[in-house]
Amino acid sequence: MNPTELPNGTSGDVLVFPDSPLVQATIDLVTSTESAAIANHSVRSWLFARLLARHRGVDLGRDLAPDLLFHACVLHDVGLTERGDRHQRFEVDGADVAAEFLTEAGMAAADVDAVWEAIALHSSGGIAHRRALLTELTHLGIGVDFGFGDHREFVTNAEGAEIHRAYPRLAMATALSDEIVAQARRRPEKAPAYSLAAGLVRERSTPPYTTGVEAAAAASRWGA
């Protein structure tokens, strides 16, 4: 599906994307390199981040460029692709891949750096929200897709259903845990002590082999 076109049966106010060739290129990158579960999660993170921005009175255009929030959210897990399977924690490898991709596409260096930070810190609770608005909204939008935060204040049941109808969950928390752990087992340097990856490897190494990420998602408003 072209991201600038709305699926049948939508309201026209929820499934909204910036309109540019680079948006399409970003969608093409994630859908061709990530599993469907992770790609859908990445797009939902953008949609939830956009709803949160609107709820907070953030003007996407005046206060924050919507395309930067889109790229930060949709590219935040490219560190889990073959292209992103390097030698740093997946968040940093993903930030590097995104920066390379956006630089090659002609994005300004300052904007690339802002997206890099948002992706590198996307799993860093307690830090991301102290940084730029882009970094904070990226972190929170991703969190909403896991069911974290006060999403009941700004995501109606109808909006949540619309988003999930277009981009089903497909057991995304398990898919994410699988990919992070598989990378870390191949390259132990990708799971430094106390990182998210190290924690997931530890949980997958002892019964019942279910990660906290999976448990939290399963217990959330959206389910696994």
Walk me through what this model shows.
Helix 1 runs parallel beside helix 3 (66-74) and helix 3 packs across helix 6. With 224 residues, the protein is mainly alpha-helical. It has a domain at 21-170: Orthogonal Bundle (Hypothetical protein af1432), CATH 1.10.3210. It is globular and about 45 Å long. Residues 1-10 have low confidence and may be disordered. It is built from ten helices and no strands. Helices cover 55% and strands 0% of the residues. The protein has helices spanning 21-33, 36-55, 66-74, 90-104, 109-120, 133-145, 157-166, 172-186, 196-204, 212-218.
- Please write the CATH class name of the domain at 21-170: Mainly Alpha
> What value does the Rg take, in angstroms?
16 Å
Helix-strand pattern: HHHHHHHHHH
What is the overall shape? Answer: globular
CATH architecture classification of the domain at 21-170: Orthogonal Bundle
Protein name: HD domain-containing protein
Domain HD: 39-127
Quick summary:
By secondary structure, the chain is mostly helical. Helix content is about 55%, strand content about 0%.
Give the tags:
224 residues; globular; mainly alpha; HD_domain; 55% helix; disordered N terminus; Hypothetical protein af1432
